[in-house]
C-alpha cells in the first residue's frame, strides 16, 4: 500500500479494494485501486478512503461556477455566449479558457422583447445553473449577474450607467437603452479581466 | 563471434539503449508538454484540452476524441523534409492515437476533444515509440486521467543479431524492426508492429528485449513526473483569494 504523501504516476497501484475505498483520481482494475493522475497520495484512515491530489486538473465548467463571456447570437429569447473566463464556484482567480466554450443564457424573468435584457455583443457575468444535456445553461438572476459592458445600437459607443436602474446611456448620441445590468457594470477590473489584460491565473 | 562481443554501429551493446532523458512541463502555453531525447532523437509534445469539440456534430456522446498530429520538422532529417504531412506522418499520427486512446480515460470527458501535437525536431530512428513515450508524459502533465503510462521501445535484427532501440543506420540496413508500446503496470501491449522477417525464437527475443528497454524508459518517465510534482509543490498558487470583490 502507498503511504500518505507519496508521489505517484498514472497506473501506480495504491491499495487493494479490501483495504480502502478508491477516492478522487483513482480507478479500480482487477481489485487493485490505481492512480489515474500524477500527484500525491492522500490517505483518510478514518473513512478508509485513498485519494490522489493531482499536480494539475483539467478545467471543466460545473454548476455554481461564474463565467464572463460575450453574447454572439440570439435565438428567440436565448442568448448564445462565448465563454472566455471562468471562476470556479465563484471564488478564487479568473481562469482564461483555451478552447471555445459556448453557453446559453436565459432572461431572468418572462420577457416579450429580449433586447431589453441583453443584446448581441454585450459582455455578461453569469452563473452556471445547469449542465443538463451537456449544455452550459447560464443564469443572470441576482444583482451581481447581468450585463457588465454594452454598446450603443446606433453608434457602437460603450454605454454608461443612466440615472434610472437598468438604463444605460450612450455618451455620444445620448440614446437610452435597457438591459439587465449587473451591479458590476463598468467595473474596470472586470472589464480588464474580460479583455485578458489582467488574467491572474492562466490555465 | 559470441553474443557478448557483438558491438553495434554506434558502439552500443545489443541490449543497450541510447542515452535518454525526458523532461515534463517544458512549454508554457500548452496544457501539458514533454520533451524526449533518445540518442539524437529530439521530440517535443504539446497537449491541449480537454476542450469542447468542434464541429459539434463530430463529437461523441459518451467519450472524448483524441486528435493526434505527428510532424517531422523540415530540419529533422539530413535531407530537407517537406513540411507537408506525408503518408508516413499521417499513418504514424493514427498509430500513436490508437495506442494512447487505450490509456486515456476518455469516458470522463464526453463531447470533448484532446489535441496532441508531436513535433520531431531531430530524428534518428524509432521516433514513433519515442513520441508515444513523450506524449504519455505530456498527457499526465496536463492532468488528463490515464489508466497507465504508455511507454514504447523498439527492437530489431541487425547482422543476424537481435538488438534493442534501433537507430537510424540499423533501421535502414537491418533485417527487421519491431516497435512496441506497453502499459507497464497493467501489463498490456498497446502497439506492436513489425517490419521484416523474424523467426519465432527471434521474435520472442526481440519482444523481450524491447520490453526490457520500455521498462527502463518507464523509470525515466516516472522520474520526470516526480520531478514535476516536487517543482509544483514548491510554487505557491498565484492569485488565490484575490479579486474576491469583483
Describe the structure concisely for a colleague:
The complex is a heterodimer of chains A (about 200) and B (about 250). Chain A has about 200 residues and is mainly beta. Chain A has one helix and 17 strands.
Structure commentary:
- The complex is a heterodimer of chains A (203) and B (246).
- The two termini of chain A are 33 Å apart.
- Chain A has 2 domains: 7-54, Beta Barrel (OB fold (Dihydrolipoamide Acetyltransferase, E2P)), CATH 2.40.50.100; 66-202, OB fold (Dihydrolipoamide Acetyltransferase, E2P) (Beta Barrel), CATH 2.40.50.140.
- Chain A is built from 1 helix and 17 strands.
- In chain A, the strands form 4 sheets. In chain A, strands 8-9-10-12-11 form a 5-stranded mixed beta barrel. In chain A, strands 1-6-7-3 form a 4-stranded mixed beta sheet, with no helix packed on it. A 3-stranded antiparallel beta sheet of chain A has the order 2-5-4, with no helix packed on it.
- Helices cover 3% and strands 42% of the residues of chain A.
- The model of chain A has no long low-confidence stretch (mean pLDDT 89).
- Chain A is mainly β and 203 residues long.
- Chain B has one domain: GHMP Kinase, N-terminal domain (Ribosomal Protein S5, domain 2, 2-Layer Sandwich).
- In chain B, 29% of the residues lie in helices and 28% in strands.
- Chain B has 4 helices and 10 strands.
- Chain B has helices at 87-101, 127-141, 168-173, 200-234; strands at residues 20-24, 32-38, 41-52, 65-72, 112-122, 151-158, 161-164, 176-183, 188-192, 195-196.
- In chain B, the strands form 2 sheets. Chain B has a 5-stranded mixed beta sheet. In chain B, strands 6, 7, 8, 9 and 10 form a 5-stranded antiparallel beta sheet that branches.
- In chain B, strand 4 (65-72), helix 1 and strand 5 (112-122) form a beta-alpha-beta unit.
- In chain B, helix 1 packs across helix 2.
- The interface between A and B is large, with 40 and 45 residues.
Amino acid at each position: 500500500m502507498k503511504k500518505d504523501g507519496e508521489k505517484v504516476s498514472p497506473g501506480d497501484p495504491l491499495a487493494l479494494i479490501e483495504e480502502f475505498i478508491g477516492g478522487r483520481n483513482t480507478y479500480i482494475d482487477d481489485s487493485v485501486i490505481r492512480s489515474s493522475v500524477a500527484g500525491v497520495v492522500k490517505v483518510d484512515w478514518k473513512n478508509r478512503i485513498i485519494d490522489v491530489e493531482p499536480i494539475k486538473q483539467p478545467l471543466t465548467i460545473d454548476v455554481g461556477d461564474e463565467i464572463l463571456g460575450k453574447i454572439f447570437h440570439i435565438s428567440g429569447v436565448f442568448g448564445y455566449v462565448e465563454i472566455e473566463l471562468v471562476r470556479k464556484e465563484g471564488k478564487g482567480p479568473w481562469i482564461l479558457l483555451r478552447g471555445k466554450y459556448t453557453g446559453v443564457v436565459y432572461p431572468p424573468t418572462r420577457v416579450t422583447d429580449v433586447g431589453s435584457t441583453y443584446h448581441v455583443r454585450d459582455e455578461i457575468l453569469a452563473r452556471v445553473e445547469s449542465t443538463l444535456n451537456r449544455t452550459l445553461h447560464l443564469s443572470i438572476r441576482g444583482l451581481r449577474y447581468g450585463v457588465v459592458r454594452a454598446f450603443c445600437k446606433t453608434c457602437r459607443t460603450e454605454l454608461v450607467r443612466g440615472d434610472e436602474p437598468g438604463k444605460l446611456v450612450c455618451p455620444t448620441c445620448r440614446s437610452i437603452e435597457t438591459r439587465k445590468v449587473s451591479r458590476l457594470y463598468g467595473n474596470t477590473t472586470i472589464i480588464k479581466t474580460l479583455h485578458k489584460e489582467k488574467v491572474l491565473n492562466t490555465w | 563471434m559470441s553474443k557478448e562481443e557483438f558491438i553495434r554501429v554506434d558502439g552500443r551493446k545489443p541490449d543497450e539503449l541510447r542515452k535518454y532523458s525526458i523532461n515534463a512541463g517544458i512549454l508554457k502555453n500548452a496544457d501539458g508538454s514533454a520533451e524526449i531525447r533518445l540518442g539524437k532523437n529530439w521530440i517535443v509534445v504539446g497537449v491541449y484540452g480537454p476542450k469542447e469539440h468542434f464541429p459539434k456534430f463530430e463529437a461523441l456522446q459518451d467519450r472524448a476524441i483524441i486528435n493526434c498530429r505527428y510532424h517531422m520538422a523540415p530540419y529533422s532529417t539530413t535531407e530537407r523534409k517537406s513540411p507537408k504531412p506525408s503518408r508516413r506522418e499521417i499513418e504514424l499520427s493514427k498509430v500513436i492515437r490508437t495506442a494512447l486512446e487505450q490509456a486515456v480515460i476518455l469516458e470522463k470527458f464526453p463531447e470533448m476533444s484532446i489535441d496532441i501535437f508531436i513535433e520531431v525536431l531531430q530524428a534518428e530512428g524509432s521516433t514513433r515509440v519515442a513520441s508515444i513515450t513523450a506524449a504519455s508524459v505530456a498527457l499526465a502533465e496536463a492532468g488528463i486521467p490515464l489508466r497507465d503510462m504508455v511507454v514504447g521501445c523498439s527492437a530489431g535484427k541487425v547482422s543476424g543479431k537481435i538488438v534493442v532501440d534501433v537507430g537510424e543506420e540499423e533501421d535502414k540496413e537491418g533485417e527487421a524492426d519491431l516497435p512496441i508500446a506497453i502499459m507497464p503496470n497493467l501489463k498490456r501491449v498497446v502497439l506492436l508492429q513489425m517490419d521484416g522477417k523474424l523467426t519465432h525464437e527471434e521474435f520472442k527475443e526481440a519482444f523481450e528485449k524491447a520490453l526490457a528497454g520500455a521498462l527502463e524508459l518507464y523509470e525515466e518517465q516516472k522520474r520526470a513526473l516526480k520531478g514535476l510534482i516536487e517543482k509544483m509543490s514548491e510554487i505557491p498558487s498565484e492569485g488565490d483569494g484575490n479579486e474576491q470583490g469583483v
